[in-house]
């Protein structure tokens, strides 16, 4: 029998049908020099020739032999991320006011809170993609994420229901001028609504935007206390 992805190890079979891609730590798209060195050392040790930064801000080591996967993760000092291999769940975040001159909010600190509070997001049967941008330039495309945030001087905007792929959609704004605590509170309610929809037969496996198109925004707005 041929090889396949090893999802329990977040290892994706490559086009050569022999080696695997695994995900190195790149939280919020930023790493310190020591982490970069550790990743490079691991790559050399296991014969990796190329690293790839993905659209989901992951750093992927390409070409790991199956028997080296566990040792490579150990060398990186991380465990395989749940849902990591196929990008079922992620946060894409821009540098915000930590590094970017245009940044209006601290996107990196906010995204860190999102990771700590919500990830991995359990019991949602479709993808959960979140984008956090520090200004209207929207460098991480929050309008095509299930939940998108844009930082402005007066606080956060939240959009819901965006997606790319075979059924592309733009998210709709459901709240403005939120401080970080309030934005997190609303996100928690959005995820609870999404989880509930994932448990219903009619909306199982559907992206948030598809669910909203089918059911209207009303139930979500009420669940979030916004109507
Ligand atoms: S979205 Fe705005 S703050 Fe973020 S990187 Fe782009 S220009 Fe900078």
Summary?
The protein is built from seven helices and nine strands; from the N terminus they run E-E-H-E-E-H-E-H-H-E-E-E-E-H-H-H. The protein is α+β, with helices and mostly antiparallel strands and 227 residues long. Iron/sulfur cluster is lined by residues 94-96, 100, 102-103, 133-135, 137-139.
What does this structure look like?
The chain is α+β, with helices and mostly antiparallel strands and 227 residues long. It has two domains: 70 residues, Sulfite Reductase Hemoprotein,Domain 2 (Sulfite Reductase Hemoprotein, domain 2), CATH 3.90.480.10; 135 residues, Sulfite Reductase Hemoprotein, domain 1, CATH 3.30.413.10. 31% of the residues lie in helices and 21% in strands. The chain has a five-stranded mixed sheet with strand order 5-6-7-8-9, with helices on one face. Strands 1-2-4-3 form a four-stranded antiparallel sheet, covered by helices on one side. The radius of gyration is 19 Å and the shape is globular. It binds iron/sulfur cluster. Iron/sulfur cluster (SF4) binds next to loops.
Percent of residues in helical segments? 25-40%
Structural class: alpha+beta
Strand order of the largest sheet: 5-6-7-8-9
If you compute it from the alpha carbons, what radius of gyration comes out, rounded to the nearest whole angstrom? 19 Å
Low-pLDDT ranges: none
What is the H/E string?
EEHEEHEHHEEEEHHH
Shape: globular
Question: Total number of helical segments?
Answer: 7
Q: What summary fits the major beta sheet? A: 5 strands, mixed
Number of domains: 2
Strand content: 15-25%
What small molecules does this complex bind? iron/sulfur cluster
Record field, number of beta strands: 9
Task: Quickly name the level 1 CATH class of the largest domain.
Answer: Alpha Beta
Q: State the fourth-level CATH superfamily of the largest domain.
A: Sulfite Reductase Hemoprotein, domain 1
Report how far the terminal alpha carbons are from each other: 55 Å
